[in-house]
Write a structure and sequence with these properties.
Blueprint (H helix, E strand, L loop, with lengths): L1 H14 L2 H17 L3 H13 L14 H12 L2 H14 L2 H26 L13 H12 L4 H39 L3 H16 L2 H30 L4 H13 L13 H16 L6 H5 L7 H8 L1 H21 L8 E2 L6 E3 L5 E3 L17 E11 L4 E12 L5 E5 L9 E2 L3 E4 L4 H11 L3 H33 L4 H14 L8 H42 L11 H6 L5
Antiparallel strand pairs: 1-8, 2-3, 4-5, 4-7, 4-8, 5-6
Helix pairs in contact: 1-19, 2-6, 2-19, 3-14, 4-10, 4-15, 4-17, 5-12, 5-15, 5-16, 6-11, 6-12, 6-14, 6-15, 6-19, 7-8, 7-19, 8-9, 8-17, 8-18, 8-19, 9-17, 9-18, 10-15, 10-17, 15-16, 16-17, 17-18
Length: 573
Amino acid sequence: MDAFNTFFGAINDFIWQNTVLYVVLATGVIFTVWSVFGQYRSLTHGVAVTRGKYDDKDDPGAINHFQALSAALSATVGLGNIGGVAIAISLGGPGAVFWMWVVGFLGMAVKLTEVTLSMLYRNTDDPDNPHGGPMWVVQKSFAEINPKLKGVGTFIGGLFCVTLLVSAITGGNMFQSWNVAEITHQYFGIPTIFTGTILAMLVGMVIIGGIKRIGNVAGTLVPFMCGAYLIAGITVFIVNIEQIPAAFGLIFRSAFNPLEATDAFIGGSAGYAFFWGMKRALFSNEAGQGSSPIAHSAAKTSEPVREGIVAGLEPFIDTIVVCTITAMVILTSGVWKRSAEAEFAAAPQVISVPAGGWVLEDVPLPERQGADWADGHSIYVVLEGEANESSGNNLHKLEGIVAELEDGGFIVEWQVHDSETQPTLRDNRIFVAYLGAALTGRAFDVFQPGLGKWLVTMAAWLFAVSTMISWNYYGEQGIVYLFGQRGVTPYRLIYIILIVVATLGFMRTDAQLDALTSLGTGVMLWVNIPITLFFGYKAMRAYHNYIGRLKAGKFHPHATPKIADVVSGHDVE
């Protein structure tokens, strides 16, 4: 496991340099200005289009606008909204939420641009299985510049597909499966591999039906799961309305100022809040990754820009609405700075290990307050040592995994803390590490015991299944580009097997979880952002042409269809 952390940590350190975050922010600013705040068009005209007022069964494509948006949202509205926000706050502090909002707003313009580009170059020769995405954009665009450059475009498109497959396997699949298995095990004691097996069966039954079945399932599942989660979150808002202003104030203050350590939270610098807010928001809403254009390319429309405007709704729903609900529940509950759940009677010694680094000596684990320990629980203590740029002080987490002894007692298998000088234990307190979605579940339980157990577990299952089926489709389109249709079946089998593999217990900490998910997001940004910047002028040219015709009254929406017909796709059949 140390080798796993070192390998993925080195890769992520390289691909997640601060420069990358600045480029992504700049890209959002460029297209926000270029589109004259296209976010407004998404929130107005995009809503009308999604409602079915412009649906036409004779248009090219396989599914209506609502189903295309739902399919894309089923990939973005997932465990990133529940677990990813929790990770951002746990590591970056409340200020991370502010930067998530910034990415959500600017991401609306990026989504509008990249989806419009893919719609301009999609292939609808097979009406039941349209193909689109950045790989086709770059291949065809280079060929337009000069036919001799088609090979360059084909290579870059292939490179994008490789990053797409990495992201599909990691963040779109294994992160989801692991989170569901972890929270189900925590609350119900169900073995993680059993959860993984059930998830694999559910996902397998959906993905064999292709984009039409995915669209139908997503069109039903996404509104239900978002609605249920929002109702629960708003209920918490109402119960704790007096704490909401303070929570918002804390977010704004800590976005630009360091936050001091408080109990379980070891502190966070403003720079770290920026880093984690950006990172988790990009994973959550996928702006700039180039993934959701693949789903939107299946939409029935004769106007490419129309679907791009609809796509702008994704980051708004995903990050500004759903992620904010999660953040407010976590912040107003106080679980991000929770108290310890156990305490050593006498401080264990911090000892060196032969390979270098420091751990706590092996001593029996004291009793846990209000609950029992179980084999595999993640915990941590706080060390004082060398300066920590992330926390803005000299505090560090020393994480460990609870192991049960034959006589029924418990000890801890501590990870190695790497430092040149010997650290000291800050105090004798032991904190339970609620990882990802488990922290959000704990937050809901603070307001109503048992609410997190049932609500967050249900939401985790629904969000994860919906995300995995959409990301499988994304990966399939990458396989089709690289190997043709013959590669789809082997890919599906591997994808399903990895759902189970992720639940075998090799990820145990926030850092390991982040390393896995950040890899897929980062490599896609490195390839897709240059594609979007280089060819974005084509999308903006088409966008302004469309808006000009919209203002001139060239488009005539028809009567709004029944919502049931829009959800099921019957309005375009």
